[in-house]
Amino acid sequence: MHPPSPAATAMDFSQNSLFGYMEDLQELTIIERPVRRSLKTPEEIERLTVDEDLSDIERAVYLLSAGQDIQGTSVIANLPFLMRQNPAETLRRVLPKVREALHVAGVEMQLTAAVSFLTILQDESVSVHTYAHSFLQVILLHLEHRDAGVSNAWLETLLSVIDVLPKDTLRHEILNPLVSKAQLSQTVQSRLVSCKILGKLTNKFDALAIKREILPLVKSLCQDVEYEVRSCMCRQLENIAQGIGTELTKSVVLPELIELSRDEGSSVRLAAFETLVNLLDIFDTDDRSQTILPVVKSFCEKSFKADESILISLSFHLGKLCHGLYGIFTPDQHLRFLEFYKKLCTLGLQQENGHNENQIPPQILEQEKKYISVRKNCAYNFPAMIVFVDPKNFHMELYSTFFCLCHDPEVPVRYTIAICFYEVSKLLNSGVYLIHKELITLLQDESLEVLDALIDHLPEILELMSTGGESSVQENKLSSLPDLVPALTAAEQRAAASLKWRTHEKLLQKYACLPQVISSDQIYYRFLQRMFTIMMTNNVLPVQKAASRTLCIFLRYNRKQEQRHEVIQKLIEQLGQGKSYWNRLRFLDTCEFIIEIFSKSFFCKYFFLPAIELTHDPVANVRMKLCYLLPKVKSTLKIPADKHLLQQLEMCVRKLLCQEKDKDVLAIVKRTVLELDRMEMSMDAFQKKFYEKDLLDQEKEREELLLLEMEQLEKEKQQNDGRPMSEKTFEKKRRDSKTPTSLPKSIPISVPGSSSATPSTSKEIKKSKLIRSQSFNNQAFHAKYGNLDKCTTSKSSTAAYTPSVSGLSKTSMISLTGTVSPNVCLYQIAKKLSPSS
Known about the structure:
GO terms for molecular function: protein phosphatase regulator activity. The chain is an all-alpha fold and 837 residues long.
């Protein structure tokens, strides 16, 4: 026999598939038949039909009386609307029917009623007195429903009602019946409900009434025979302590907590421990040292022999516990608690992990999950433990633990320590250099969740790293961290290769801080070209926009004119004049960012004409987007200096009006023309109406010119390296520089109300440059990215603008980068290039 040919096999397969499909279709028809039989009969439809002429109240009464359960549930869900529409009739006619229906209602209707009653209370459709009279008894009646979910739903409604009821109503309707409900003869469910109600009632009565009427019930429930009741009452002692004051808490609540902390039930001991930790602030030093500390020590010593759930709670509260007991530990106790914390941080890591997960017993897997939760809680409490040991002792006491948490094999632990990384950096202050390597480790983490948690505060972290935690330090300290740039680039590439585009977008937004922490050349060769690639090739619009904005910020603070011109040329040629309409749309996005970030003159010089040329674009979407941008484009013009550009803009708009064939674009053009006509033009001289915006634009332009000045000074310094040069010769070079004459006439040296004069001598010119560059660099910048226009409207920003030419404000960097201390600050360059250097 010969094996069948591939073609025959394929034929058989296709035939079998065809027969298989036919069989599937037959099965579907069989399945559909019972569905058709299950449709409502005419009699059933008639029974479910309601007269359309009935009012809402009459329809509700009819459905609650003769309708099916689903119809009654619908009426109860609509009860808040009926109460808003006609409260009197709803209370008189509908609510009695609701009470009757709830006596035999199922779980779904009960849950719906609990939610509706709570909504009516929150809507304040009726007065508190009316609500208590009409609804309170219904709520109390169903508190002990046999279904736990229903009982909890009604209890939540009751606890919300207690907040608004008057004391007399609370005492007669709730507190007095509670005396019998809390007795041992009642069910466990009834006593559990009583515990929660008592915890809520303490905030409504004075201390004397609580002592006389509530505390006896509390003591009784704390001694209940059921551990569930004791645990529930123990967790309510925190609320009770806040209601009765410090003295009664010490004399009544504290002894109960101490006794419950020795309870035979582990859940009761755990509840007592957590309540003690939460009440630490109430007790004085003597109570903490003599009463609470021994209990805590005993609890910690026995925790490793107990259930892992106790370790989870203990690890979560350990930071708060150490903070509350700080100052009463002896050196030996301090060391023991620290060692206990270190032990928890590595819990479960000592076991061998080489086994196959499929072969691990389920109980071992569950235990490992609890150990992971313990280490995660330890990571959460790490900043509190730094305070506990004092940041000065971090390297000796906690660095090895921090290293273990950053290299933990489980993602939740590393994710939590990444969230805390900024807090740790702030606490270490000048010792932040100790965790440089851990920053690199988390940036290179294989999990994007860890990276996403870290980059939330990446600008602030890099700021602390670059300044060593001292805002006054000018020298950048990231030069001692050579792995930072490779780690940042690798992090971006991992985010780009994943499907989590939001993480990628966030990372690109945070990279806008890089001009303040690494050199301009590093940004140009390692990041700026990458931004171009993302803009050209990425398929996610928010990611492209984030890359575009970050690229504009890189361009804004690039310190080499040749590189800036190259980037501008690539933006115009590859985006503005690109073959893909998508790239041309991104060019318009970039123009919008340029208008926001740069000065008006910069946009007009390089991007005005390439932008308005897109009025002739063959793609309607591009022309439409340009129309939306035209008002911002016009806002960059100053009259009369930019009169010729205004004429070209008007000519392009006129052509659009006359030649546009797309009706959608034409409609937008007409709206844009009206908006352009209403706009008022900025003048070369300051106007009171545009004073703040003009002043902000002046500051931007000065900073752009200052970059050119610093570049020129650097070139002169490089040309004279290796040759002796006298101070007089170097000063003459600086005096002959074009810098002082580079300020255009359109930027006034002073504004009305300012008496500052132009420096006339060479020493004054040099001093002016140095002061301006120092002012540009030394300002403290915000850690958030905002809109420049918003900065101009705030009073604080207005106050920061200095009209004198000798001072540059911090306004532009406030909204652009959000970090401080540039790696190569302009003040340092000017200082190094000065004759004194």
